Amino acid sequence: MNCDDKLRDCFDEMVVYKDLKKTNFFSTLSLPAFMRDWLLKKFEDDEGNFDRDDLTRFVKKYIPRKDDWISIKNRVIVEGERVKFLAKVSVNIDIKTGEVSFALPDYGLGYKETIIESDVWDACKEDLVHGGDIWGMIELGYRSPEEFDIEFEYESKRSRGKTSQDGKIKLVSFKNFCPYQIDLDQYKDARSEFTIEEWLDAILGAVDYNAKGYKSEEEKLTMITRLLPFVEKRLNLIELAPKGTGKSYLFGNVSRYGWLSSGGTMSRAKMFYDQTKRKEGLISACDYVTLDEVQTISFTDTDEMRGALKGYMENGKFTVGDYQGVAYAGVVLCGNIRQEIMDADGYSNMFTELPVIFHESALIERFHGFIKGWHIPRMNDDLKIDGWALNSEYFCSIMHELRDDMTYRSIVDDLVIVPDGADTRDTEAVKRIATAYLKLLFPHVQSASDISTREFRRYCLDRARKMRDTIKYQLGLLDVEYSGKDLPMFGIREFGE
Predict the structure, then answer these.
(1) How far apart are CA 42 and CA 227, in angstroms?
(2) SS3 annotation, 307-362
(3) What's the pLDDT at 162?
(4) Which of 71, 157, 223, 454 has its CA 20 to 30 A from that of 489?
């Protein structure tokens, strides 16, 4: 049975036929991969064929562009229609009034302009109370000032407090975008049917890449390394790579749980906590925050941001004013790299072109590992998926769920022998990266005896050591205090083959 047949047999409804060469029209719609795969699954037949006209009509009706927002407001407010479409939603509960409101960040609709009435909130709160942005099929209506006057007494009895009498857009209904329940046990069982070589190809297909387009296993593994922050909490990585290797696409389009910031200005308020709005930032809402094109990013206050990053990356906590928060997002830096530095393969100073905020060794040390992105081929048509593959939305939901599974870290703790005198940050970095590799490549492993020493060393521990070793070497170039400090030689306990 080939890999495609195994995928369809083991994952059934969670597999779609992807042919990015033929479905380039999706790119004109600016849809993320997880939504594209949801649409493909909705319209494909058993052979992977779909009617492009039917799909296009659905997209035009239910996935409006930002330019359509004025038209939607006209239909809802002026024409009195109810309008239904797919959108990203966030929710707020006002402490003073008890009023529940929502925002549509992609359309600029804020909390002050909206309301979720009591009966609607009771019907959909289970999907909306988990925080962050949630994708779903929303239905909008309008609540006029006159309606507020009529229903004010009723709302007071429902303990909503004083309600604003301005007209507001209201949420009429909400249906979660995810059309299925995630079954981690089934996913883990299915992985045991694949060899490691087949599984590498399956992962690449899940994130839209054609495994046959890669020349070596090393290229595949380096590409897959970008997914480590998707499965492991607070895993902080740096990647420098040539242009055109797909950094922005993978971090910005594949998962609905991450955030990609490309260039521009980043503030502590946006990243951590906004004191004016009393709202937590990206770190609290996402699985990872990627600062792409980091050379072009500026910070409103370099010292303030550096201090916040160091504290958060050390222990997952941040303090802004009198607010103290805890979060689990990884921080990923992505930047381009010059040819002469690539040629040195990590043995010349790679951080000279980064913003000054990252020229401090104490901050760089808190990044767990380094991805040598020049080992990833430049994007070309041969690397675009053409065949059966795991649904990106499903796969990224699985990775999101794996973040909470502590089994894998306990297995790594059992397997890895830490030498005496090993630096605590080095040990934690190596173990955290190895844990992420274990989750990603061997999710079916549930005890130390379930994986061979050879596979754990080759695919988890050695790769974790190399990623951390690059950080250690760069620290030595950046700060003489770190010069000559080698990474400890971590060993592996034998649990039987």
Answers:
(1) 26
(2) HHHHHHHHHCEEEECCEEEECCCEEEEEEECCHHHHHCCCCCCCCCCCCHHHCCHH
(3) 47
(4) 223
Question: What are the CA-CA distances from residue 239 to residues 22, 81, 294, 376 (Å)?
Answer: 31, 48, 10, 11
Going by DSSP bridges, is the β-strand pair 491-492/416-417 parallel, antiparallel, or unpaired? antiparallel
Q: Which amino acid is at 436?
A: A
Q: How many percent of the chain have pLDDT more than 90?
A: 58
CB 476 within 8 A of CB 483: yes
Q: What is the pLDDT of residue 150?
A: 52
Alpha-carbon distances, residue 116 vs 108, 131, 431 (angstroms): 17, 15, 45
* The overall pTM is greater than 0.90: no
Distance of CA 110 to the CA centre of its chain: 24
With residue 53 as reference, give the H or E element that holds it.
helix 52-62
Buried b / exposed e over 47-63, threshold 16 CB at 10 Å, is: eeebeeeebeeebeeeb
pLDDT at 149: 56
Query: To which residue do tokens 């998962």 refer?
Result: 255
- Which residues, including other chains, have CB under 8 Å from residue 477's CB and lie 6 or more apart? 348, 349, 483
Task: Identify the burial level of 154 via C-beta atoms within 10 angstroms of its C-beta, where 0-12 means exposed, 13-18 middle and 19 or more buried.
Answer: exposed
**Per residue in 17-29, is it b (16+ CB within 10 Å) or e — as a string?**
bbebeebeebeee
Look up tokens 């996402």; give the residue.
286
- Measured CA to CA, the distance from residue 86 to residue 177 in angstroms comes to 8
CA-to-CA distance for 243 and 229, rounded, in angstroms?
Answer: 21
**Res 38: pLDDT:** 80
3-state SS string over 233-274? CCCCEEEEECCCCCHHHHHHHCCCCEEEEEEEEECHHHHCEE
Specify the pLDDT at position 28: 66
| Structure confidence at residue 141 (pLDDT) | 96
Looking at residue 75, its amino acid is R
At residue 266, the 3 state secondary structure works out as strand
The two tokens of residue 225 are 């390394």
């190596």: which residue's tokens? 430
Q: What is the pLDDT of residue 102?
A: 95
pLDDT (0 to 100) of residue 179: 60
Please, which residues have CB within 8 angstroms of residue 401's CB and are 6 or more apart in sequence? Answer: 182, 184
Residue ranges of the chain whose pLDDT lies below 70: 21-30, 131-132, 148-164, 179-180, 496-497
Instruction: Report whether 460 contacts 441 (CB < 8 A).
Output: yes
Rounded Cα–Cα distance for residues 26 and 117 (Å):
36
Give the angle 215-203-177 at the CA atoms, nearest 5°.
145
**For the chain, what is the radius of gyration of the CA atoms?**
24
Indicate the burial class of 330 (C-beta count within 10 angstroms; 0-12, 13-18, 19 or more). buried
Classified as helix, coil or strand, 117 is coil
SS3 category, 151: helix
